[in-house]
Design a protein that fits this description.
It is a single chain. The protein is mainly β. The protein has a domain of 284 residues: 7 Propeller (Methylamine Dehydrogenase, Chain H), CATH 2.130.10. The chain contains 1 helix and 33 strands. The longest helix has 14 residues. The protein starts with a helix and ends in a 15-residue tail after the last strand.
Length: 417
């Protein structure tokens, strides 16, 4: 058993994946930040083997998604006047521990609360409040290991600090900065929280970085509100390449399409989706535009790439594009500003009215395979998929469904203690 776990850890390190179990969802958008799970045994026939509710429980206001790691479920919410990080039992939804991070940054839309999704790495939870208090907590009991305030309170973005920490090796990498002159990105020592390097400049935005290996070099890729640019940093904080765009409402996360392409999107009517190809020759990096498509305006939830096609929400329209050319393949209205995750050839689409749809990942047309009404509140947070279960939240509650062929044992309803 130990040797098998060692082999898994070594294989993950070689692939550039954090050393977590393959069926965990340990950070924003999953193991590789691409919104895709590697799950086996999920039901593709919801008539014969429908999703089974495992538990649901009240949850406070916030857009923080659910993280599943180390036998626990983690998320954040606004509880009264302060934001909290909570660890839940995955089988019952009951609270295992709760840590307060202080008052919330008031949002311009009257929907204050945390927007960061916790990252779990090697037994530590890394997350941040909307007021930019970044903390490292012990995943077992929530005890504080270190903290670092990234942005002065008066310079936090208007909707609150929203970046989900990227843990890579010994670094915690986030976008930061409160003024035009302040560093725009920072890498912290994941053991101590001390600053290792800073880079770029300008206020923090609402997106989160990814890590990718392009032309043999590991790099951190940001889609920044400042300068509306896609920019890459080396693991030492050096700018490798950058590409200016005309995007304004930059909230989503870049998507890496191996071996050398990056897709970004915004909800701007004149921008939409953009595919870049990254080249490297004789020490010089360049980012060239492959295609643009206005009708893939991802607003606050990022698309997924499955088998050569992009599936995502063009504001209120669910669409499929050919990833190589940007050609529109099909469109489906009526799901609002939804979100999705994927596993194999299946898409799990969460409409913003709380409906969960099972959809075939096919460019030939929209093919709905099943639907359940999972929640009744506004569901703007993307679901998380791990261990045969999908976890979803709205502004009222968080719910877990079993998606396996055999179904799960329904637990008693979790409490909010």
């Amino acid at each position: 058993m130990k040797s098998a776990l060692l082999c898994l850890t070594l294989a993950a390190a070689v692939a550039g994946i954090p050393p977590a179990l393959a069926d965990d969802w340990p950070q924003h958008r999953g193991l590789q930040r691409h919104g895709i799970a590697d799950e086996a045994g999920l039901s593709s026939d919801w008539e014969q083997s429908p999703p089974r509710e495992v538990w649901r429980r009240p949850i406070g206001i916030g857009y923080s998604a659910v993280t599943i790691a180390d036998g626990r479920v983690f998320t954040m919410s606004l509880d009264g006047e302060e934001e909290v990080v909570v660890a839940l039992d995955p089988d019952s939804g009951q609270t295992l521990w709760r840590v307060a991070l202080g008052p919330s940054k008031a949002s311009d839309m009257d929907d204050s609360g945390p927007r960061t999704t916790p990252t779990v790495h090697d037994g530590v939870v890394y997350t941040a409040s909307s007021a930019s208090r970044l903390v490292a907590l012990d995943a077992e009991d929530g005890s504080l290991l270190w903290e670092n305030t990234l942005v002065d309170a008066e310079q936090v973005p208007r909707f609150g600090y929203s970046v989900s920490p990227l843990v890579d090796g010994e670094l915690v990498v986030v976008e930061t900065g409160g003024s035009e002159e302040a560093p725009g990105a920072v890498a912290l020592d994941r053991q101590t929280g001390e600053v290792v390097w800073t880079a770029l400049a300008g206020p923090a935005g609402y997106g989160s970085p990814i890590v990718a290996e392009l032309h043999g070099q590991r790099q951190y890729i940001f889609f920044r509100r400042v300068g509306a640019e896609v920019v890459s940093l080396s693991t030492e904080g050096e700018v490798l390449w950058r590409h200016e765009t005309t995007g304004l409402s930059i909230i989503t996360t870049p998507i890496f399409l191996a071996p050398d392409r990056i897709f970004v999107a915004t909800a701007d009517d004149a921008f939409g989706g953009l595919m870049l190809e990254i080249s490297h020759s004789e020490g010089t990096w360049a980012a060239g535009e492959v295609w643009k498509e206005r009708l893939m305006r991802n607003h606050f939830n990022t698309a997924v790439h499955v088998a050569g096609h992009l599936y995502g929400f063009d504001n209120g329209t669910f669409r499929c594009l050919d990833a190589a050319t940007g050609e529109k393949r099909w469109a489906k209205r009526g799901l609002g500003k939804g979100s999705l995750v994927a596993s194999g050839s299946l898409l799990y689409v969460l409409a913003d009215d709380g409906s969960l749809l099972l959809v075939e990942a096919s460019p030939e047309g929209f093919n709905e395979l099943g639907r359940v009404q999972a929640m009744s509140g506004r569901a703007w947070t993307a679901p998380s998929l791990a261990n045969g279960r999908i976890y979803m939240r709205d502004f009222d509650e968080v719910v877990a469904y079993d998606l396996t062929d055999s179904g799960g044992v329904v637990a008693s309803e979790g409490d909010d203690s």
